[in-house]
Specification:
The protein is an all-alpha fold and about 170 residues long.
Amino acid sequence: MVDLDVRKVKKNIKILEKLEKSSALEIELARKLALIECCGWIEEKMHHMIFNYIDKNIINNDLKETAKKSIRKISFGFRYPEFKEKLIATLGEIEIIKIEKCIKKKTQFDFEHFKQVLSELKNKRDSYAHTYSRIGTMTTHLGFYQLYQKLDDVNKGLKMFQLFVKRRE
């Protein structure tokens, strides 16, 4: 089983923060790597949730692998529309509509904020992943504190979805 406890990615980010504070790693590189690490965790967490559902609901191993390959091909990304598309492909559109309604009505969770944070992180990740860091130039990287906050917001949302998905297993 894959261990995707949020504390593990936070530990990795904390290491990068310490390296940056001790000047062992340039601020631009430390923050860029921290963001990429955070976003990689989000993508893995989303797939893990969906793949667990597939593993528990499909008996035939060949069919399981086919379903997982299909999910991987749907889209690369972790904005809410891409995540929702993968959930729909796995659970069905009606189930996802029900889950969204429950989350919006029966919880104190700020669903719109969750979707916004995913988009912000994806946009930042994309802009950093496709460029190299220019050391010594002023860039607007997310600070470590901001990154921890966004990671907490996303983790809360993913836990909420995981709870509702597990109810359908």
